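Dear colleagues,

I hope this message finds you well. In preparation for our joint manuscript, I am sending the Hybrid-cluster NAD(P)-dependent oxidoreductase (Paraburkholderia tagetis) sequence together with its predicted structure, so that both groups work from identical material. I would be grateful if you could confirm receipt.
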Amino acid sequence: MMRDAAQFDPTDSRVTRPAFWGTLPERWTSDVEETLVCCHVRQETHDVKSFFFRSPQGRTFSFEPGQFVTLELEIDGEPVNRCYTISSSPARPHTISITVKRVPDGKVSNWLHDNLQPGASIRVLGPGGEFTCARHPANKYLFLSAGSGITPLMSMSRAHHDLAEDRDIVFVHSARTPDDIIFARELELIAASHTHFRTSFVCERLGARTAWPGVTGFLTLPLLKLIAPDFMEREIFVCGPAPYMKAVRDLLDEAGFQRKQYHEESFSFETLNAGEGEALAEAPAQADGEAGSEAGAETATFKVTFAKSNREIQCGTNQHVLDAARQAGVRLPSSCAQGMCGTCKVKLVSGQVQMNHKGGIRQREIDQGMALMCCSKPLSDLVIDK
Ligand SMILES: Cc1cc2nc3c(=O)[nH]c(=O)nc-3n(C[C@H](O)[C@H](O)[C@H](O)COP(=O)(O)OP(=O)(O)OC[C@H]3O[C@@H](n4cnc5c(N)ncnc54)[C@H](O)[C@@H]3O)c2cc1C
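The corresponding structure tokens are as follows:
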């Protein structure tokens, strides 16, 4: 039945539309509005949930598909930060979602699964990150992911779908079993709606299923050649656990794939920065365009004191404090090591640093004496509240 327009009362709170509809609200930035509200939780697989957030002020989100946010939580009285890729599409800017896989004994992933409910407020920093197809336009892409590494590629695929782009995309996702494939039905729907979007799932084993039309085993070069015979012409984006990424790099090396068409993101940057299997990987960008610590060069050093743990180390004027701390065996929480994620944020009790961050800290926090250790070089002796 058609609704009689005369009966519609826009002041009736039961029918009032959300504030943002039909308007162009301001953009959300974590500098202006630090908290977001969880508005929906969706179980994706037995150990993966998506959490949806909106701005309490109705602001919209602007990000590139593949970028991440950092959640700033307090668990058991301890501040703890973790990065999560935005899995939603930038073309649906009124909410963002993250998709989190439980990590056995992991502090934050399990806390989110067990505690984060619609209505809860959460401090969020970002978005940041450079792993995005938006910065590498191409006509043909190959997305390779494993496990929760699907999230940045899902955001890229959702954006492709929402913007009705007619790019040629082959998306090959690896999972333990068919029941572990995150977003399986949605990916199939996207593939069904676009002539040039193809998906392929590779499962290690069958798990509880007895029938599975897809491939079982691991991604190999012969298998990749079968799925995407023209893969050498494609711009490749890869995300997954470290062993998977190493296997992909090895098989692409074997095929002689061009380094400049290859892009990867690890969910544990430490592994990448340790230099494991870097053959194809893009070198992590330096925050300030200089070389990091110049091994062997004669440089002055400053004393860095960690007040709470009562440790003292020396840090070269040309060295990032995080690197000096690691070399001296002092463990500091860190993630991206590029000034983006904010995980290594500390309070400087005294001293000055030269910091070249990429959005991982708010101006307000810098004014309050906070600094990111991964991209800060000492300008004096330092005392750190750690
Ligand atoms: C850019 C980026 C994007 C990411 N995007 C996503 C995403 O979209 N989805 C997603 O699920 N994850 C993502 N991650 C990973 C995420 O940030 C977390 O690392 C992940 O959720 C695990 O965090 P946790 O606190 O649960 O585990 P942690 O508590 O950090 O533990 C991780 C592992 O280390 C072990 N461990 C912890 N402490 C110790 C110790 N003292 N000694 C020995 N072992 C220890 C734990 O047992 C566990 O196996 C991303 C990471 C990055 C850097």
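For the figure legend, we might mention the following. Residues 23-128 form a domain with the Elongation Factor Tu (Ef-tu); domain 3 fold (CATH 2.40.30.10). The longest strand covers residues 35-45.

With kind regards,
E.M.
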